[in-house]
Design a protein that fits this description.
The chain is α+β, with helices and mostly antiparallel strands. About 30% of the residues lie in helices and about 30% in strands. Strands 3-4-5-9-8-7-6 form a 7-stranded mixed beta sheet, with helices on both faces. Strands 13-12-11-10-14 form a 5-stranded antiparallel beta sheet, with no helix packed on it. Helix 2 crosses helix 3 and helix 5 packs across helix 7. It is elongated. The N and C termini lie far apart (about 65 Å).
Length: about 300
């Protein structure tokens, strides 16, 4: 009902009488008034007058009713510890495929290697619960599909030269715009779920804690609708997953990465490796050419770009 009511107010772009809203929605005028009051509590600037109601501006909010056809799978929280924590609970409780947990802010957001992802208001923080019918050995391709889709979405919507840094960060002009974290529970031959967590710097300022990061607002010089970005990304990502063409994802991903062909340092919990990034294999592992001419396969870690070539 909230979504339908907002749609009517947006399409009119003027005062709409309570009687007209009541007739269009098939509810009483009292019911209309109650929904209007609730929407105001959620932050929608709806002005009332003897003639009716008017939506004065369209706030950039991420409530379920802002995503038609997805409302039952969207779970929005103004503040949580981490969307990954909530998504894990929902996945283990049997939530449906492509359930999405969104937070206005996180107070314990996580990045790779247990690093903190600072999650202040204005950014986009979400986790998607997926239940792909693939073997666990192919699970890394889901993460590559997510980062590839987000990279393409940013290019399409805003005309920016977004690229992917292995394994799944998004950079613009060498500055980090987005990071991703994946979590999986599986049996020998079956994936129970894969949770894809995304943090995107949209209208927040990440530079006080991460000087080499950037927000879309800074890059474009204007505020960006998180709602529109998320809607476009979810549609594109679900369509890609639905095509079941994960065999081609890594090949396509390579066309958008700035990692291959560069000197990189990879940091894991146990070691650091430095070399020329020469390729990514069929399971997403990075192939490094070391200074002695040997090759090393890196499955997981934080990647730092360096200048020049070692050899």
């Amino acid at each position: 009902m909230k979504g339908q009511l907002l749609q009517l107010l947006r399409s009119a772009n003027e005062i709409v009488s309570g009687e007209a809203l009541s007739a269009e929605l098939g509810v009483s005028r009292v019911s209309v008034w109650k929904h209007i009051r609730k929407l105001r509590e959620y932050g929608y600037p709806i002005r009332s007058s003897p003639k009716g109601y008017r939506l004065c501006s369209d706030p950039d909010v991420l409530y379920p009713w802002e995503f038609p056809q997805r409302e039952s799978k969207i779970h929005y929280f103004p503040e949580v510890s981490s969307t990954m924590d909530i998504a894990r609970e929902k996945a283990r409780s049997g939530c449906s495929d492509f359930t999405v947990v969104i937070a206005g802010r996180q107070n314990r957001g996580r990045g790779r290697l247990d690093r903190t992802w600072h999650s202040v208001e204005g950014g986009l923080y979400l986790t998607i619960v997926l239940r792909p019918l693939i073997l666990p050995v192919l699970s890394a391709r889901i993460g590559f599909a997510a980062s590839l889709t987000l990279c393409q979405t940013l290019r399409s919507l805003y005309g920016i030269e977004a690229v992917v840094k292995w394994p799944n960060d998004i950079l613009v002009a060498e500055r980090k715009v987005s990071g991703m974290l994946a979590e999986m529970e599986a049996e020998t031959d079956r994936i129970r779920y894969i949770n894809i967590g995304l943090g995107i710097n949209v209208n927040n300022d990440p530079t006080p804690v991460e000087p080499h990061a950037a927000s879309l607002r800074e890059i474009l010089g204007r505020p960006v609708s998180r709602k529109n970005l998320l809607a476009e990304f979810l549609d594109a990502f679900e369509k890609r997953i639905g095509r079941n063409d994960l065999e081609t994802v890594l090949h396509e991903w390579k066309h958008y990465t700035s990692t291959i062909g560069r000197v990189v340092k990879i940091v894991t919990h146990t070691e650091e490796s430095e070399g020329n990034a020469v390729d990514v294999d069929e399971n997403g592992a990075l192939i490094l050419e070391l200074s002695d001419g040997s090759f090393k396969k890196i499955i997981y870690g934080d990647c730092f770009h360096r200048s020049g070539r070692i050899l």
